[in-house]
Amino acid sequence: MNIEIVNTNLKSHLKLLRIQNWRGYFLIASLGFFLSRGFLFPVKDVTFFYLIILLFLSFGFSINDCFDTEEDKLDKDKENIIVLKKISFKRGLVFSILLAVLGLILSTKFGLRVFLFCLAEILLILFYSSPPLRLKSRPLLDLISHGLFAGALVFLIPVLIFSKDLLFHYLIAFSIFYFSITLELRNHLEDYETDREADLKTTVCFLGYEKSEKLLRRLGILYPFTLAPIFLLISWQYFLVFLALTLTFLFLVLFKKDYRIVSSYRVMDAYAHICFIFLIYYYLRI
Question: Residue 122 — pLDDT band, cuts 50, 70, 90?
């Protein structure tokens, strides 16, 4: 009986981490890792780095579920462990904080600068999800904060650990920041009805669904401009490849009949992934 209780608690805590939602953010961290040639460093450093990232991802999703109970009660498709009362709010909160603290402790191995970046990451995640700030319920600030903690900072942490060359990396970080903003808009468009019922003032709730969808479409069309300077600085050959990819992407976005980027955003994702794969290929060759 005791073993069954332990197994149930373990499964509930694992579900609170929402591991199935980690993929995109894990890939962003891995992009920074590969562009910084982190694989050339000792296994111990690589292990510490990925432990830090996994702990921060765990903290981000678990703390979000702790404070998203009102919205998640209205969404039958969301399995919030706290809403289902498999874990209490207090236990979930303590568990989340322990994950963040452990990640911060591990980050001290890489020096003060990395620790401060990691602290900024943790604070932004906390302020995004929890009151009194709860940035996710403040128009525009929800997009900016998500672009930072779920985009630029996740990418820059491995850069600070494994690399000293920051010019290209800051340009890439801005592109990822921009891309993360579009991800946040997508999420809020998908959650529009429940967020509105829960009186959550996201950017989408503030602008309305149709205006937000138009904004997302325009941001998607402008996204290549965040990548263009990177490829221009690399070489004209890479820029020509980038240009061909961009024209294909824009053709699909602008001319496909009844195209809606909110429901067919895999085109944008594929475009971004291919561009980043070319960047990894370039960095591995030099």
Answer: very high
- pLDDT at 262 (0 to 100): 45
The CA–CA distances, whole Å, from 94 to 66, 208, 246, 254 equal 10, 36, 46, 48
| Sign of CA pseudo-dihedral 39, 275, 56, 18 | negative
Amino acid making up residue 50: Y
Length of the chain: 286
Give which of 100, 143, 98 is closest to 121, Cα–Cα.
100
DSSP state of 152: I
CA pair distance 98, 123, nearest whole angstrom: 14
Q: Where do runs of H (alpha helix) occur along the chain?
A: 2-17, 23-35, 43-67, 69-73, 89-107, 112-129, 141-147, 153-162, 167-190, 192-197, 203-207, 209-222, 224-234, 236-255, 266-285
CATH 3.30.420 assigned to 2-285: no
The domains of the chain are located at 2-285
